[in-house]
Amino acid sequence: MKRIALHWQILIALFAGGIFGFFIPDGVVWVAWMGDLFLRLLRMVIIPLVFSTLVTGVASVGNADNLGRIGLKTMLFYLATSLIAILTGLVLVNLIKPGVGADIGLAERPETIGVVGYSFLDTVLGIVPDNIFASLMRGDMLPIIFFAILAGFFITRLDQHHSRSLSTAFKALSELMMKITMFVVRFTPAGVFGIVAKVISEQAGDQDALLAVTGRLGLYMLTVLIGIFFQGLITLSIALKGLGGINPAEHIRNMSAVLLTAFSTSSSNATLPLTISEIETKSGVSPAISGFTLPLGATINMNGTALYECVAVMFIAQAYGIELSIGQQLIVVVTALLAAIGSAGIPMAGLVMMAIVMSAVGLPLEGIGLILAVDRILDMFRTALNVYGDTCAAVIIARSEPDADKPEASNCVIG
User: Model pTM?
Assistant: First the structure.
């Protein structure tokens, strides 16, 4: 018997949890543990996943063969487009305000969960750990990310024997954590059922509040999708035309199979072999450039994920009635950028990494339950944008390197 696809499992769990919580609120106590267990599993993988993927990603960038002109241009493009995506999401979520009016309440006051009481300067200084082991124990994500970046960079400055050994070890750890994360993802339907049932049961006595949450969730989805399409069709099109003189419509047509594969698998890594093949055979990008920009992009270039994390965190804060200051929103921007860089190219990795952004501004992780129901659908769109951003970087960098060897291409966009 063919197994039901994960996204269908999640949708079924969503409706089942909602029905259970609405009609049998007294029985939620028997299923809420599934949501709690799922959140504990997410917390379990966050720190080792972030640390290993960031160290591996930075170490691969810092290899002597990859440093230089092409590496610098690639990194600048990835960071710039990811930052623009986050700022686009921030502007949209502040204009549309999808979470305002949901008013789901908090078990604790904002003051007691760390949303207030820290200045932006305190947070910036707190990025540098005074004891990395204490930061690991406490789960302080910003210091962990800072140390991981330093570790990845200086691994490449060791002698060849030690550098190769550490790089191999962290790559193995990163792959191990991806396997564990995929194991955790299997429990998503059960987690969705338990969390949604609990949330719905708490609102079952107030139908006006329940309708407000449901309506606002749809508005949240619309906000994310507007941002994704704006980034893909406007921002990246401008980059293609302005930086590379490339026809955006022609590039999208060349990458149609790649985009459909990314959309259906929700995995940048699973799409990577096809992306490399298509970018070389259809767009005429040299293997040297595609072999560097695309694997690197699958690791650190997450336009869609970065935008989604920013909108999602702001939506959760609005739904809880928590107003984040300008400084705290800047923290969201910076942390979303770093979290997107550390996000693994696997389905729903952005959901795991979003906990980092929420922790940075003190939001309760239980708020993730508000968006779990629609995360799988949005994951398909944001992964397609992630991969599309990688392909845009590859053709732009290739156009800027006229001396690079180019393979035969059926519909070459590289002059």
Answer: 0.66
